[in-house]
């Protein structure tokens, strides 16, 4: 099991460009300075709430820039 800091470092070293998570605290718990991996933070991990927003999430994934932290509120009406 990897801690968040180790997970981010290992994912970045393995060539991952984005980490999709529901852990709202990652930006506060980790020093993201100099990280190239982007973080996409969903407001929930409950599939019935995530599913209707899959196309929206995919569009956001396409737009996220290296090192960026983006929060996605899945309670929003926009799909």
Describe the structure.
The protein has 79 residues and is of the alpha/beta class. The chain has four helices and three strands, in the order αβαβααβ. Strands 1-2-3 form a three-stranded parallel beta sheet, sandwiched between helices. Strand 1 (18-21), helix 2 (26-29) and strand 2 (38-42) form a beta-alpha-beta unit.
Summarize the structure.
The chain is built from four helices and three strands; from the N terminus they run H-E-H-E-H-H-E. With 79 residues, it is of the alpha/beta class.
Search tags:
single chain; 79 residues; alpha/beta; 3-stranded parallel beta sheet
For the biggest sheet, the summary is: 3 strands, parallel
Count of individual beta strands:
3
Measured by DSSP, the beta-strand proportion falls in 15-25%
| Average pLDDT for all residues | 90
Please give the structural blueprint.
Layout: H1 4-13, E1 18-21, H2 26-29, E2 38-42, H3 47-50, H4 54-63, E3 69-72
Parallel strand pairs: 1-2, 2-3
């Amino acid at each position: 099991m990897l801690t968040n800091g180790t997970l981010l470092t290992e994912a970045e070293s393995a060539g991952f460009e984005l980490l999709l998570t529901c852990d709202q605290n990652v930006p506060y718990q980790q020093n993201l300075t100099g990280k190239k991996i982007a973080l996409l933070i969903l407001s929930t991990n409950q599939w019935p709430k995530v599913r209707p927003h899959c196309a929206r999430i995919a569009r956001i994934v396409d737009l996220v820039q290296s090192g960026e932290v983006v929060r996605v509120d899945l309670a929003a009406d926009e799909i």
